[in-house]
């Protein structure tokens, strides 16, 4: 069935169609894929583009673009270049005028003979680091491509610095070619030893003004009005055994009867403290010393009468404990997990924000999500919630954030709020 765009989506598709270099900044679930496919079909139909390459996270390649293409670009075949080298080569060699592949294939892609004259970067924030190997491989791939479109939910998920790499890959004329020059112009070095930079006064407004001509900001009015309410609830409690946590925080060492955990620097201790806020720590092997957070999770699920729930975790040991406690729980690695969830037959779906943070449509299977532990990335946090809180969701969405009092959980939660504030200001500047 061919889809029908809403007025604001039509405007966004026209914006792309009219520009060789452009970006769409849109909330989770607002239809970025539908918008882009519509513009792509028009470009292909009018022979303004010969062939599109789409770069996206792997699961978005396999579960989103092939599903959406028949609705929004039904006259043009799509090929998914994911899997073995043979499967990827077959997709590249096919007659499909839209080929989708994942970012992890970039270095392989750079070694192939390509015949694309247009490219779409889905989840543009994957390219925020202009010095990374992925970015360098991409530079070779995109050199002959005139049309470059980027899609993102937030430019500033971890700060203003992220904007440079994303804009550079789309259009070097927006913020220049050199990261160093960008930093000198818009940031001040406040600590040379740690290479710590801080945005200059008014830098955000200046950067947003520079990129505004190439950026379409999807107004949330109509989109948000059609979504059910999102409720965010903090589920707080205390560690029943604080001594290991406090020892790690002050001494960088936690001693246990048969093992000990050591942090070699401040960066490692932060990760250890996040683990310990969930009641365990990686030493020679995972050591558990407190299960109070999981007991609070048990109580929460019981209070919600075991309604279908996503549970987001950070560490493999958290996943292991979840599986021990809830043997019927399902992960995204399970066959037909998404299909079964959306059919309402999965009570607990265990997800990692990096796997569930982009592109998945999970709004039909439930309306509750629990963050057992939080990601540091605002983008991953919001995108994970957006799997449920999106178009098609019929119920209010309840997001429960589990926080161990007087631990790093509180700092991560506060950091996400600060980043959200920056992201909101950036959106306003672009309007």
So, the CATH homologous superfamily of the largest domain? Answer: Tandem AAA-ATPase domain
User: From the 3D coordinates, which CATH architecture of the largest domain would you assign?
Assistant: 3-Layer(aba) Sandwich
The total tally of domains equals: 2
DSSP E strands, number: 19
Largest sheet: 7 strands, parallel
Enumerate the spans where pLDDT stays under 50 for 5 or more consecutive residues. none
General form? globular
Q: Give the number of helices.
A: 20
Would you mind describing this structure in some detail?
- A hairpin with a 3-residue loop joins strand 13 (280-282) and strand 14.
- The chain is α/β, with parallel strands linked by helices.
- The chain has two domains: 7-221, Tandem AAA-ATPase domain (Rossmann fold), CATH 3.40.50; 227-240 and 290-430, Rossmann fold (3-Layer(aba) Sandwich), CATH 3.40.50.
- A seven-stranded parallel sheet has the order 3-4-2-5-6-1-9, sandwiched between helices. Strands 10-19-18-15-17-16 form a six-stranded parallel sheet, sandwiched between helices.
- Helix 1 (7-17) crosses helix 2 (32-45).
- The mean pLDDT is 88.
- The protein has helices spanning 7-17, 32-45, 58-63, 65-72, 85-93, 106-109, 133-142, 162-170, 172-175, 179-186, 203-211, 220-225, 243-251, 266-277, 292-303, 316-325, 337-342, 353-356, 378-385, 408-430, and strands at 21-25, 52-56, 78-81, 98-102, 118-122, 147-152, 187-191, 196-199, 215-217, 230-237, 253-256, 259-262, 280-282, 286-288, 309-312, 330-331, 348-351, 368-371, 397-404.
- It is globular and about 70 Å long.
- It has 20 helices and 19 strands.
């Amino acid at each position: 069935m061919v889809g029908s765009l809403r007025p604001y989506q039509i405007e966004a598709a026209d914006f792309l169609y009219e520009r060789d270099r452009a970006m769409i900044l849109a909330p989770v679930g607002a239809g970025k894929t539908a918008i882009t496919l519509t513009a792509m079909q028009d470009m292909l139909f009018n022979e303004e583009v010969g062939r599109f390459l789409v770069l996206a996270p792997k699961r978005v390649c396999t579960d989103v673009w092939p599903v959406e293409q028949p609705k929004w670009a039904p006259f043009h075949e799509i090929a998914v270049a994911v899997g073995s080298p043979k499967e990827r080569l077959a997709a590249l060699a096919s007659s499909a005028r839209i080929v989708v592949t994942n970012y992890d294939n970039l270095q392989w892609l750079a070694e192939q003979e390509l015949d694309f004259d247009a490219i779409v970067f889905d989840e543009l924030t994957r390219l925020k680091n202009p010095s990374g190997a992925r970015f360098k491989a991409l530079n070779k791939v995109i050199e002959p491509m005139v049309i470059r479109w980027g899609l993102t939910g937030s430019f500033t998920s971890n700060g203003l610095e992220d904007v440079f790499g994303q804009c550079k890959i789309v259009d070097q004329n927006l913020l220049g070619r050199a990261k160093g020059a960008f930093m000198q112009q818009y940031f001040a070095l406040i600590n040379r030893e740690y290479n710590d930079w801080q945005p200059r006064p008014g830098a955000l407004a200046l950067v947003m003004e520079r990129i505004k001509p190439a950026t379409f900001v999807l107004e949330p009015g109509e989109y948000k009005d059609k979504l059910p309410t999102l409720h965010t609830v903090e589920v707080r409690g205390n560690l029943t055994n604080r001594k290991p946590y406090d020892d790690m925080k002050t001494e960088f060492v936690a001693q246990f009867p048969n093992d000990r955990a050591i942090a070699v620097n401040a960066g490692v201790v932060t990760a250890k403290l996040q683990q310990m806020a969930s009641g365990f720590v990686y030493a020679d092997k995972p050591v558990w010393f407190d299960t109070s957070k999981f007991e609070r999770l048990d109580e929460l699920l019981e209070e919600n009468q075991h309604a279908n729930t996503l549970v987001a975790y950070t560490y493999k040991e958290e996943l292991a404990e979840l599986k021990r406690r809830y043997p019927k729980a399902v992960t995204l690695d399970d066959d037909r997990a998404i299909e079964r969830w959306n059919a309402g037959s999965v009570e607990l779906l265990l997800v990692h924000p990096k796997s569930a943070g982009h592109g998945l449509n999970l709004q039909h299977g439930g309306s509750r999500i629990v963050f057992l532990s939080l990601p540091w990335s605002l983008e991953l946090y919001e995108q994970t919630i957006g799997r449920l809180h999106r178009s098609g969701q019929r119920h209010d969405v309840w997001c429960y954030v589990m926080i161990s009092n007087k631990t790093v959980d509180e700092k991560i939660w506060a950091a996400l709020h600060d980043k959200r504030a920056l992201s909101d200001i950036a959106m306003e500047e672009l309007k």
